[in-house]
Amino acid sequence: MAVVLVSGGLDSMISAASAKAAGYRILALSVDYNQRHQIELAAARRVAHELGAERHIILPLDLSAFGGSALTADIEVPKDGVQPGIPVTYVPARNTIFLSLALGWAEAAGARDLFIGVNALDYSGYPDCRPEFISAFEGLAEIATKAGVEGQPFKIHAPLQHMTKADIVREGTRLGVDMGLSWSCYDPAPGGLHCGRCDSCRLRSKGFEEAGIPDPTAYAVKPQG
Predict the structure, then answer these.
(1) Is the pLDDT of residue 102 over 70?
(2) In this prediction, what percent of the chain has a pLDDT beyond 90?
(3) Which strands form 155-157's sheet, in the order they lie side by side?
(4) Whole-prediction pTM
(5) CA–CA separation, 24 vs 136, rounded Å?
(6) How far apart, in whole angstroms, are the C-alpha atoms of residue 165 and residue 184?
(7) Predicted local confidence at residue 112, as pLDDT
(8) Pure H helices in the chain
């Protein structure tokens, strides 16, 4: 059994599908942090159902009270293409917070495996997507929990860690999942469309294009670059 972070995005969907393919029973965890793209939670429900999660918790945790991100505050989402550096769509400590929640559920449920869909190649420059972060959190889990100090360490699985977005799309195809169920856009357009201009839309579109696999995503405008 594994606790799997399911945001509703493409990467988290393929990570969850990897857990299922490896034979894990899935406990799906999503966080309603009052994100700008609340529509992703509907996608998370679809994904959890599609992958046969034994339980799906959508946990309310309003990070807009902190702000500090274009996803949780009145800050414009960049739409000029992926730029160097850490963008304003970075949510302070988000993956640390989410993995801490997943760790708490895992210990309570008797699970010792956690899955998260981070990758360090085709991504937006977030520091909490790097391998050293995953390794450090795994070490933290060992000393911060009753299970860990009693010799039952936790394993943080990041199966997409070293994949490009094209690799991730190919893996989704190999696993036979319907990637059209997922949602990536940070700033949804009217009518439930991906905007086609934010970093996340551009990276998603680029992945399908480079993989040579038809993109099932409905965009308001065709992503460029």
Answers:
(1) yes
(2) 91
(3) 55-60, 26-32, 2-5, 113-115, 155-157
(4) 0.95
(5) 24
(6) 12
(7) 98
(8) 10-21, 39-50, 94-109, 131-144, 146-149, 165-175, 199-211
Q: How is residue 63 annotated by DSSP?
A: G
Query: What is each CA distance from 224 to 11, 100, 167, 207, in whole angstroms?
Result: 20, 36, 20, 12
List the structure tokens of 199: 């970093």
Which two tokens mark 176? 């036979």
Question: Looking up tokens 């274009």, which residue turns up?
Answer: 70
Find the mean pLDDT for residues 21-44: 97
pLDDT tens sequence across 167-185: 999 999 999 999 999 999 9
Reported as a single tens digit per residue, the pLDDT across 132-144 is 999 999 999 999 9
143 by Cβ neighbours in 10 Å (0-12 / 13-18 / 19+) ranks as exposed
Task: Give me 78's structure tokens.
Answer: 């960049």
Nearest to 99, CA basis, from 60, 157, 47, 42: 157
Q: Cα separations (Å) of 39 from 131, 189, 201?
A: 29, 11, 14
CB-count exposure of residue 54 (10 Å: 0-12, 13-18, 19+)? exposed
Reduce the DSSP state of residue 69 to 3 states and report it. coil
User: In terms of DSSP H, where are the helices of 32-110?
Assistant: 39-50, 94-109
